[in-house]
């Protein structure tokens, strides 16, 4: 180590010398700033004082060596004297240490000024033997931060460590100086001085670089010393006798060998071949084909197996040169392009390429094949039965309407006169007169065929006339009309006097009976009000022909006469307990047959042939036996709200119209459920009616139409009734969502009268 | 009393399992399950009652037949999949440990069919199970061939290894060789998607699609892994089918393959077929079919019968055509044809003129293909229809009979280039470097027929050599029709003249339009106001005949109520009145314009037509009412069915109607152009 250290030292001094030389040079050039020069000087002094303090001998030798160096380099163009002066100056400083440590100078005012030397910390730091050159305290930061300053950091005292002269100042010198030994051109970051390496160090580096062993005389491969050899020593190391296993073949080895032998025999271990050759062999091996179906045995068909359907073969439009009619028009092309790809009917557009050389590749081919393979393994398969029949064969064979004549088809008479809606119409039993009642509170009687108004009475100025019905029977012509809670009986002055007199007798017969009847009293003795009050209507009306009035508790919506003309039933849906009432005209008597009903009654009717009473509630129709006074049957049409119903003249069939647009035919013998449900109307059905003699029936609806049906009932249990829609009669206008409110058939002819919400009445023949 | 049946123990609930359940049961990953399904031909089902099958859950799932999955449990491939899985695990573990050599050793053992195109397993047992008889396999060949021909034309990518493509190509070429040798190609069709071929092998019709020889573009979301699984199976299948087919005609399989020739685009020429010396040539193996396949009529005889029926129809239409045909055939020693004199008798298959046999259609021809024609399909088709000598330009590849265009033995040349106008003046020295073409652009070798490629296809489909003048280079080609369409009664058929297939109503409409056009002509002749008015009137009639009638009716209804006299007036009278009014107006207008003769001429004819049309419209309306009446009496279910059927029928008929309309327009245009 000693030589290296000394050499290092020497190098340091060389640098110092060089620096000093540079300083001199700079001084002579006068180019450097004062600060820089000062710093350089200070630096020098520090350096030397340190060196001196540490070991004088070395410093001396170093100096001398530096001197030697300088002397050696003869061709340095600086003056030897300068150097000498510098050196002496250094020594001078050292001598000054013994004297007073201040100088006396005169200041600007002429007074004396003591200028003390700088305190050299090294003097007091004597116990720190390791103290070396001033250490840069800037820490681990790049030196480049100081590039723009003259110093390169600070020492322990906060003094600037000045940058050793570099750059242009040195360039000239370096050009002239031979590169010193061990010069690396690197800067020691610690000191900022050039880093020089000794010859040994360089040698070491070189060896490391050349991947040689760093130590020159190290032998990595010494000859082995064979301590244990095959040669039998005269004095063996161990005295133990040779074990037996040394003489026996190894079992373990035999096992392993046998394993290998087995693997080779089984073909698991193959002789080595290069991978390419092996790959090729494998390929050839797999090309082996044989007759897979050498002994084919047909398998019975499996029911659960569904073979994949084959794609449809290409049609004409897929041709590269299709007939011109298959080419899409501009609009079709546009529609196809605008459509979402998944909604397109065909995934291609027919195109004509003209000739084969112009036909391009089809760009969706891969995608189509891909979707086909997806279909093959991903699409659920199901067997679908497809009907290959003519749809017309599904339709029932209906008789032609012409064969089922007569039925009304044309509006022949229109009766105009009512203000506002006409609510009800009725044709008298003789078929000559037509009575109508409407919102204007009047009841009018018209000549059926001539359409002229014959008679009119205003029953009320507030309430509309809800129902108008003729009393059945030819011996008297009595018209009943319901206005609010009142039922009026009138005899229009249209007939000959005898009939009129007979009618008056019928109406008056009840008064005597009512006078004879004893008054019913309650338990308290008070007079109990009957369900209805029968009285004369009063002067004006009596003059006009209205002869009798019956008042019930709530407003009446329907009137239905018994076929004999003595009884009639009224329904007032808001009447709760007394909703349905049966009146006897000959006795002026009113009875309430039902104490309680399971719903709001809508209509009631007597059976045309049997002693039965049909009461329609909202959802069901109940049939009561009047003689035995019991519930016979409940019919469930299955609609939400029954509007009206009618009973077939034979008494076994029932047709029901409902506000939810349904028309239901019930066969009472068959089941409580409807036999046929028809939905031909777009709006609620208002009324239904059977013709009394012809096998036709009709319904009217709020969509302004009347529909005529053929409904033939055979008196045979095995044969179901035949229903054929015949004709739709339209002509009434829809006003405020109301169309045809009521219809009535002519008693003998196949004519129908309809009352419209538009204020007109029509006769259809 | 028997035990109470528990819910979910039998029937739909037991017979179907969901895909998740199936995967869990088999203990494999979903991709492996997919592979198994593809190979074993297992497909999802639609259970009869979804709710029961899904145990009342409403989640939408795919169902598999439980027995199918049960059957998969014993699949040897399942074991292979598991082995593969363990190997993958080992590799990943070795890599995780950083043991690269071990990993690479294991990797070498792994079968990577997606990279090498070669699996370590074989699928022959799967094929045997799926197709117990050879005919079963042939029946499923459509998809197989389409897929393999597509893959043979794909560029190789990371997902489609080059080896797979090469193998597909080889298998396809081998199959084509069989078809040529056995001459079993029947029909072919040039579509916009590619070329369809139909072959008949052992009584089975096989139809497949070959793309045009262009670089295929991948459009849309295509998963090549799924396609690859299919291709893997199909390759094995076609290999075994090829083997069977080759041995059935006494050839050795695989045929000798010449790599050098293949490198020079020899294609079909790169294979050399060899006789199978070792095995005695077996006669056509007795066909074994499954019980379910009914023995249909022989397609060949069927085709003949079809043809005969067609001819019969033609003779019914006009006897003249038949006569001319007979005259044409007169000089040749034709076999007498037994034409049925009266309908009703059975049609017997008759012997056919020997020259018309499809196998020897091109037997006497020598073809030369110009360089712009697609060589592969033409070579294949010509050779499979008996042509022995097909030459082509040298640029088209190896294996031509001749590359010399001037070879005197050439009888037909297939050309697909337009006639060049300016080139006539050029001197012939301008040499084409690419082809070493020796002929000037428009020069023709005398004694040779020049045709466009479509001629070959049309000849094949009609089983006779078509007239070459229609297919001459530069000529407007006749439309190329698909030979696979079966004529349906009432559907539009482009081969039949329009008059024979349009319904009465359309014909009337058509003639109406004609009248209109005449009117238009008149208008052009003298531009008088009156005539134009008249035209407008008749136009209005055309556009909405039914509307007008409706209006009439409504009017009648409206006014019917007022007077007794009018209510009896029925529609007919109304119509007559209208016609009379029209007549009157016309007369008036004619007087105004000062020409009466022409209008008078036109009048009776147009009147008759008008009446006919009215009658038709009335009839249609009545029918419609009748249907509406009857429909009301149907139950809801039947009505829905009826409406659905009518919907599809209407859709078809409107399509046909559109086609007829277009054709009518086109025909009129051409007629006008001629006039």
TrEMBL record, chain A:
GO terms for cellular component: nucleoplasm; PeBoW complex; preribosome, large subunit precursor. It comes from Anthostomella pinea. Keywords: Nucleus, Repeat, Ribosome biogenesis, rRNA processing, WD repeat. The keyword Hydrolase does not apply. It is found in: Nucleus, Nucleolus; Nucleus, Nucleoplasm. This is Ribosome biogenesis protein ERB1. Residues 40-58, 65-82 have a biased composition (Acidic residues). Residues 146-408 form the BOP1 N-terminal domain.
From TrEMBL, chain B:
The keyword Oxidoreductase does not apply. It is found in: Nucleus, Nucleolus; Nucleus, Nucleoplasm. InterPro entries: BRCT_dom (IPR001357), BRCT_dom_sf (IPR036420), PES (IPR010613). GO terms for molecular function: ribonucleoprotein complex binding; RNA binding. Residues 279-301, 315-335, 425-444, 469-675 are annotated as: Disordered. Residues 660-675 have a biased composition (Basic residues). Residues 499-527, 545-579 have a biased composition (Acidic residues). Its main location: nucleus. Residues 325-335 have a biased composition (Basic and acidic residues). Component of the NOP7 complex, which is required for maturation of the 25S and 5.8S ribosomal RNAs and formation of the 60S ribosome. Belongs to the pescadillo family. This is Pescadillo homolog. The lineage of its organism: Eukaryota, Fungi, Dikarya, Ascomycota, Pezizomycotina.
């Amino acid at each position: 180590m000693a030589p290296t250290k000394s050499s290092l030292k020497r190098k340091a001094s060389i640098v110092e010398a060089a620096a000093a030389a540079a300083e001199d040079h700079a001084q002579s050039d006068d180019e450097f700033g004062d600060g820089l020069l000062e710093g350089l000087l200070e630096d020098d002094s520090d350096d030397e004082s340190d060196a001196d303090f540490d070991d004088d001998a070395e410093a001396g030798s170093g100096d001398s060596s530096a001197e030697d160096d300088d002397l050696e380099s003869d061709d340095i163009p600086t003056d030897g004297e300068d150097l000498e002066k510098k050196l002496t100056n250094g020594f001078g400083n050292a001598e000054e240490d013994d004297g007073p440590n201040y100088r006396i100078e005169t200041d600007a005012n002429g007074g004396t000024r003591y200028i003390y030397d700088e305190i050299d910390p090294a003097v007091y730091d004597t116990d720190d033997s390791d103290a070396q050159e001033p250490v840069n305290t800037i820490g681990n930061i790049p030196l480049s931060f100081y590039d723009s300053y003259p110093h390169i950091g600070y020492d322990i005292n906060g003094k600037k460590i000045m940058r050793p002269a570099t750059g242009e100042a040195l360039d000239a010198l370096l050009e002239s100086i031979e590169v010193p030994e061990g010069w690396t051109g690197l800067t020691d970051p610690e000191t900022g001085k050039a880093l020089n390496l000794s010859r040994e160090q360089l040698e070491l580096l070189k060896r490391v670089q050349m991947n040689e062993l760093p130590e020159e005389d190290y032998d990595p491969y010494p000859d082995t010393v064979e301590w244990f050899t095959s040669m039998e020593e005269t004095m063996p190391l161990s005295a133990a006798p040779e074990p037996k296993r040394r003489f026996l073949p190894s079992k373990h080895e035999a096992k392993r060998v046998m394993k290998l032998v087995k693997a080779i025999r089984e073909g698991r271990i193959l002789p080595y071949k290069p991978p390419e050759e092996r790959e090729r062999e494998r390929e050839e091996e797999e090309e082996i084909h044989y007759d897979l179906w050498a002994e084919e045995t047909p398998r019975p068909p499996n029911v659960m197996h569904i073979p994949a359907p084959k794609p449809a073969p290409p049609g004409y439009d897929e041709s590269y040169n299709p007939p011109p009619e298959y080419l899409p028009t501009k609009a079709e092309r546009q529609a196809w392009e605008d459509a979402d790809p998944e909604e397109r009917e065909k995934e291609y557009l027919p195109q004509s390429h003209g000739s084969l050389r112009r036909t391009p590749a089809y760009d969706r081919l891969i995608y189509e094949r891909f979707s086909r393979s997806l279909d093959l393994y991903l699409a659920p398969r199901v067997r679908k039965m497809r009907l290959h029949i003519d749809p017309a064969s599904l339709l029932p064979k209906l008789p032609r309407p012409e064969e089922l004549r007569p039925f009304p088809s044309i509006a022949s008479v229109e009766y105009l006169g009512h203000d506002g809606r006409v609510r009800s119409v009725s044709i008298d039993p003789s078929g000559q007169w037509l009575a109508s009642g409407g919102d204007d509170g009047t009841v009018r009687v018209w000549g059926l065929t001539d359409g002229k108004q014959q008679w009119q009475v205003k029953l009320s100025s507030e309430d509309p006339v809800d129902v108008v019905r003729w009393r059945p029977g030819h011996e008297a012509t009595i018209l009943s009309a319901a206005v609010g809670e009142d039922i009026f009986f009138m005899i229009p002055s249209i007939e000959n006097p005898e009939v009129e007199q007979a009618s008056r007798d019928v109406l008056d017969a009840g008064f005597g009976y009512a006078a004879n009847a004893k008054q019913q009293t309650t338990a308290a003795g008070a007079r109990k009000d009957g369900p209805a009050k029968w009285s004369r209507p009063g002067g004006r009306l009596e003059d006009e022909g209205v002869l009798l009035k019956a008042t019930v508790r709530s407003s009446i919506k329907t009137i239905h006469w018994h076929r004999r003309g003595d009884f009639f039933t009224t329904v007032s849906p808001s009447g709760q307990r007394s909703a349905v009432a049966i009146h006897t005209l000959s006795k002026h008597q009113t009875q309430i047959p039902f104490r309680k009903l399971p719903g709001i009654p809508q209509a009631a009717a007597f059976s045309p042939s049997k002693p039965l009473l049909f009461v329609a509630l909202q959802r069901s129709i109940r049939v009561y036996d009047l003689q035995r006074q019991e519930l016979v049957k409940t019919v469930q049409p299955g609609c939400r709200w029954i509007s009206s119903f009618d009973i077939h003249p034979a008494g076994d069939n029932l047709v029901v119209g409902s506000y939810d647009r349904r028309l239901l035919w019930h066969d009472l013998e068959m089941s409580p459920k409807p036999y046929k449900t028809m939905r031909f109307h777009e709006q609620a059905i208002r009324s239904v009616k059977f013709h009394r003699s012809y096998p036709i029936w009709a319904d009217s609806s709020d969509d302004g139409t009347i529909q005529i049906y053929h409904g033939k009932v055979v008196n045979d249990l095995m044969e179901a009734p035949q229903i054929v829609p015949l004709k739709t009669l339209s002509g009434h206008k829809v006003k405020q969502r109301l169309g045809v409110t009521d219809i009535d058939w002519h008693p003998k002819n196949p004519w129908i009268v309809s009352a419209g919400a538009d204020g007109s009445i029509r006769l259809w023949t | 009393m028997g035990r109470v049946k528990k819910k979910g123990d039998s029937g739909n609930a037991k017979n179907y399992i969901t895909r998740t359940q199936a995967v869990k049961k088999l203990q494999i990953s979903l991709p492996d399950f997919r592979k198994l399904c593809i190979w074993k031909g297992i497909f999802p089902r639609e259970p009869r009652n979804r709710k029961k099958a899904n145990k009342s859950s409403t989640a939408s799932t795919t169902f598999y037949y439980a027995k199918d999955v049960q059957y998969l449990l014993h699949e040897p491939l399942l074991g292979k999949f598991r082995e593969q899985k363990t190997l993958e695990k080992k590799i990943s573990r070795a890599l995780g440990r950083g043991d690269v050599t071990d990993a690479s050793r294991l990797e070498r053992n792994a079968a990577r069919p997606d990279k090498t195109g070669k699996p370590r397993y074989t699928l022959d047992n799967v094929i045997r199970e799926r197709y117990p008889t050879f005919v079963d396999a042939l029946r499923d060949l459509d998809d197989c061939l389409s897929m393999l021909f597509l893959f043979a034309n794909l560029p190789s990518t990371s997902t489609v290894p080059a080896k797979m493509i090469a193998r597909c190509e080889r298998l396809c070429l081998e199959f084509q060789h069989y078809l040529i040798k056995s001459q079993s190609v029947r029909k072919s069709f040039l579509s916009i998607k590619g070329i369809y071929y139909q072959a008949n092998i052992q009584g089975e019709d096989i139809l497949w699609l070959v793309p045009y020889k262009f670089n295929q573009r991948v459009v849309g979301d295509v998963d090549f892994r799924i396609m690859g699984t299919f291709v893997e199976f199909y390759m094995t299948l076609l290999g075994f089918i090829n083997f069977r087919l080759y041995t059935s005609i006494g050839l050795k399989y695989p045929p000798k393959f010449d790599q050098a020739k293949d490198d020079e685009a020899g294609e079909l020429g790169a294979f050399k077929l060899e006789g199978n010396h070792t095995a005695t040539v077996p006669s056509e193996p007795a066909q074994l079919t499954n019980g379910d396949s009914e023995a249909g009529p022989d397609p060949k005889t069927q085709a003949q019968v079809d043809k005969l029926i067609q001819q019969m129809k033609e003779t019914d239409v006009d006897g003249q055509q038949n006569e001319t045909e007979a005259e044409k055939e007169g000089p040749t020693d034709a076999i007498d044809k037994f034409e049925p004199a009266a309908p009703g008798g059975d049609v017997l298959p008759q012997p056919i003129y020997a020259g018309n046999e499809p196998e020897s259609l091109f037997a006497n021809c020598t073809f030369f293909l110009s360089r712009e024609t697609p060589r592969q399909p033409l070579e294949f088709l010509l050779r499979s229809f008996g042509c022995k000598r097909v030459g082509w330009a040298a640029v088209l590849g190896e294996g031509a009979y001749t590359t010399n265009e001037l070879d005197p033995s050439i009888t037909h040349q297939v050309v697909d280039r337009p006639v060049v106008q300016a080139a006539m003046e050029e001197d012939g020295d301008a040499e084409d470097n690419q082809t070493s073409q020796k002929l000037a652009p428009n020069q023709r070798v005398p004694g040779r027929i020049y045709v466009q490629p479509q001629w070959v296809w049309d000849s094949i489909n009609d089983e006779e050599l078509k007239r070459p003048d229609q297919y001459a280079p530069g000529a407007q080609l006749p439309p190329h029709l698909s030979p696979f369409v079966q004529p349906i009664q009432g559907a539009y058929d482009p081969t039949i003249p329009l008059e024979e297939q349009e319904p009465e109503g359309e014909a009337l409409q058509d003639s109406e339009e004609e009248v209109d056009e005449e009117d238009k002509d008149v208008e052009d002749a003298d531009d008088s106001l009156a005539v134009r008015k008249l035209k407008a009137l008749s136009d209005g009639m055309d556009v909405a005949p039914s509307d007008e009638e409706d209006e009439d009716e409504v009017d009648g209804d409206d006014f019917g109520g007022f007077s007794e006299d009018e209510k009896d007036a029925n529609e007919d009278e109304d119509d007559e009145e209208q016609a009379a009014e029209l007549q009157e107006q016309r007369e008036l207008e004619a007087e105004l314009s000062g020409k009466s003769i022409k209008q008078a001429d036109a009048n009776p004819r147009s009147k008759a037509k008008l009446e006919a049309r009215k009658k038709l419209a009335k009839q249609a309306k009545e029918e419609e009412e009748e249907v509406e009446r009857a429909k009301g009496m149907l139950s809801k279910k039947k009505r829905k069915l009826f409406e659905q059927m009518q919907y599809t029928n209407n859709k078809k008929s409107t399509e046909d109607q559109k086609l007829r309309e277009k054709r009518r327009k086109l025909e009129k245009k051409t007629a006008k152009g001629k006039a």
